[in-house]
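Tokens in:
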């Protein structure tokens, strides 16, 4: 569904469900990553907000979020594996065929973790890393930045990778970029890059069609996105498009997801039935 002027209007469905998986096309590091032990970062709302002073009492909101997270996690855990595969394939196909994705030259994207039951992004990442990417008659070189969690204080970086082999697995089997490349050089950090990001592909536990996003409680993405938006404003760059990937069961009714002052809204949702533009920027760029 497409949101326009405060009401919902039908949109053309942008994909058909695909039954086959893409696992055989992934490089071996994605199927059997080398486990590198790093500390497990525990994420919770209290850590996210303990230094914030804008609101004196956010406990009721934290409680609502915890209840909703628990509910969504249980539903994701019980999701039929065949349905999950179908929806993973459909969502990735929609993204890969979308003009707004094809035109994006610089992207930040999460690396999906099966244990967290996130929408699969492995085929998307593999396509981004192809050099160059074809957009009609044009050849577009894409640059990809992926997240690396540094500590328990909401400190996350987005580092450039040029190959799937640049990723290693932490103690939770979540793939991350090594801080140094194969030559021992520091990877480019998107916050120090000379050019702006066009598109963020974001994970989450729940979303609604007004742009609310429920994360896992650590505040890593909200903190990073706010900092990047401030940087873009300071540099007079066009703000990036914030697009979340969502299974059907993760889309909530409007008003169900509670908000805190630092929650960053998304611009659009991609679900198995198609694209849901939300913000004016998404309506303009995705039309």
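Residues out:
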């Amino acid at each position: 569904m497409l949101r326009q002027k405060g009401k919902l209007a039908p949109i053309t469905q942008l994909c058909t469900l695909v039954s086959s998986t893409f696992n055989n096309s992934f490089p071996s590091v994605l199927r059997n990553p080398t486990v590198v032990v790093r500390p497990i970062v525990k994420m919770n709302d209290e850590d996210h907000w303990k230094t914030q002073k804008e609101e004196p009492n956010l406990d009721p909101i934290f409680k609502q979020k915890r209840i909703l997270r628990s509910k969504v996690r249980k539903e994701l855990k019980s999701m039929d594996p065949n349905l999950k595969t179908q929806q993973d394939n459909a969502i990735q196909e929609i993204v890969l065929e979308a003009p707004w994705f094809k035109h994006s030259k610089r992207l930040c994207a999460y690396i999906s973790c099966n244990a967290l039951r996130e929408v699969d992004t492995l085929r998307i990442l593999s396509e981004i890393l192809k050099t160059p990417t074809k957009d009609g008659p044009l050849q577009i070189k894409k640059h990809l930045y992926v997240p690396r969690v540094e500590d328990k204080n909401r400190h996350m970086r987005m580092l450039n990778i040029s190959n799937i082999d640049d990723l290693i697995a932490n103690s939770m089997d979540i793939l991350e970029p090594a801080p140094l490349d194969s030559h021992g050089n520091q990877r480019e950090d998107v916050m120090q890059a000379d050019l702006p990001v066009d598109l963020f592909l974001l994970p989450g536990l729940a979303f609604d069609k007004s742009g609310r996003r429920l994360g896992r409680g650590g505040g890593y993405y909200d903190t990073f996105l706010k900092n990047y938006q401030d940087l873009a404003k300071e540099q007079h760059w066009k703000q990036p498009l914030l697009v979340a990937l969502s299974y059907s069961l993760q889309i909530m009714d409007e008003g169900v997801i509670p908000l805190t002052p630092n929650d960053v809204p998304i611009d659009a949702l991609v679900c198995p039935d198609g694209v849901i533009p939300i913000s004016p920027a998404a309506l303009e760029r995705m039309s």
